[in-house]
Amino acid sequence: MKSRGFILVATLWILAGITIAATYFAQRIAASIELAKQYDAHIQTQIACSDSKAEIAYLLATQGFSMYGLGDPATHIKLNNQPYRMEGDCIARFQDTRGLYAINGASRDTLGVLLNRKGVPEAEHDRLFDTLMDYMDPTPNMHRLNGVQKEDYKTHGLPAPTGQLLVTPDQLRQVYGWKEQDSLWSGSEPITDWVTTARVIAVNPNTAIPAVLMTLPGITAEAVPRILQYRDIEPILNEGQLANLLGIDVQQLYFKVIAFPADTIRVSLGADSQQTSIRYNVALTPIAPEAPWRIDYYYRIPQRIIQKNNDAIPSIPFDLTATPASAATAPFILQGASQ
């Protein structure tokens, strides 16, 4: 009887062990299946975003610009960083670079406006401007009053100044004294969201972000919402119309405003299921022998998509399956408006 009791207890322990092992392996298999599903979804999202990138290149090469944005007034993409749904759950934002701050052509006064809005103390403005100018200055032995020497870069573990214009906005982190200004990089919009390294002139009031609108003469913080509200209804046509809207002398805006997109567009592309988005700058080069566009830079940024991929975000207003217009009828960028 004792041996039978021992065998029964041992059998129960074995069965319990088998049950525990089976449960463990079932959980591992379920977890593996879930990871496989997540990985598959991640791959599908990457494929969709890759397809979206190709579609964006096609749109930029085949659709003309207008004061409304990319395309004609009836069907157009706004170039003010508004989100649009693409393939799968990918979301794209298009930003006219004339609506951003041209950091390579910075002036002391206008850069000060941006630094103020980012909460940088005014006592730091001259130093940041001078170190930026020194960084881009091709003359190695010339230093401004608040600039620094190459040895200072080496001491602080920074790459030596290039003596050339910035290539990407994120290169500002390599300029002496800029990275230490935490307010420039904090919040939902770091300074790199506000600036462009594209070679553009003037400001497009139809696509400019609020911080860039503030750099225009005669514009106050109270006037910015009026401009945003007006251009949401219809585009601003020229500096005269903008001056009338603001109640200022039009001469203040001469050579500072061009109410038409530049030939460079910043694209931000990502999905709410990803931790990062890609950002790249597309320069249109229709007469180049290689391609009708050029990618000036390409890097990843933290994912900042707030809305989910639902009806709150509009889809691209173009039929990508339609036959493109012929060369004789395709829309063109206006001459003289591409710089």
Automatic annotation (TrEMBL):
Pfam families: T2SSK_1st
Domain T2SS protein K first SAM-like: 106-181
GO cellular component: plasma membrane
Keyword set, alphabetical order: Cell inner membrane, Cell membrane, Membrane, Protein transport, Transmembrane, Transmembrane helix, Transport
Localization of this protein: Cell inner membrane
Biological process annotations from GO: protein secretion
UniProt superkingdom: Bacteria
InterPro entries for this protein: GspK, GspK_central_sf, RuvA_2-like, T2SSK_SAM-like_1st
Transmembrane residue ranges: none
Family: Belongs to the GSP K family.
Classification via PANTHER family: TYPE II SECRETION SYSTEM PROTEIN K
Stated name of the protein: General secretion pathway protein GspK
Species in which this protein is naturally found: Undibacterium oligocarboniphilum
